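S1.2 Input.
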Amino acid sequence: MWIERLDASHALDYRALMLEAYDLHPQAFTSSVRERASRPLSWWESRLISKLEVVFGAFEEGKLAGIVGLAFEPREK
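S1.3 Output.
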């Protein structure tokens, strides 16, 4: 297993894994699978190239198996 920062080239796999998570664990998210599934691929890509978010993927046998993300909020405190 290895971990790397995701970029726009990972958008399809990122979307698929996130939609699976929204479906299997709806209580863990503030958005529904239906809401997120309707987003265009460009929306998913933008999350991976944002300067205010960073998303790392865990890969096993060449397949994206897990995700963790950090969001930064530009706030005074």
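S1.4 Remarks. The two ends are 37 Å apart (CA to CA).
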